[in-house]
Amino acid sequence: xxxxxKQWTEKGVVWFTVISSAEGKEGYVTPSQENxxxxxxxxxxxAALLDPEGKLGRLxxxxxxxxxxxxxxxxxxxxxxxxxDRPSTDLDDVKGADNFVSDALNAAMSGKTVANPHTxxxxxxxxxxx
Length: 130
What we know:
Elements: H1 2-9, E1 16-19, H2 31-40, E2 47-50, H3 55-59, E3 64-65, E4 68-71, E5 77-81, H4 91-94, H5 100-109, E6 124-125
Parallel strand pairs: 1-2
Antiparallel strand pairs: 3-6, 4-5
């Protein structure tokens, strides 16, 4: 994820990390904790957005973390789903994965239609407020 963020933000893509965990739920962080977490993870998003009420997460129907969304400059959602085709946290597994986010961004930056605009996301469930 961190390498992907760095690769695409260097190409001018605006990358938001959204944390939609509610207070008292797994994954919830305060603003200072979020800054520490981003530094610890060597994350390179354009910005991290705290969404403890789940408004943004629910707006996009985010179910898992991560759940990836690519929005074009006109505000149109052009991809939603998994980061890649390998539901694994093992970095060796990821090396040969088909990265759906990169596929979508490459298509969009080339003026092409995203061939696979929706995939099933995988990961832990988002811990929304009840």
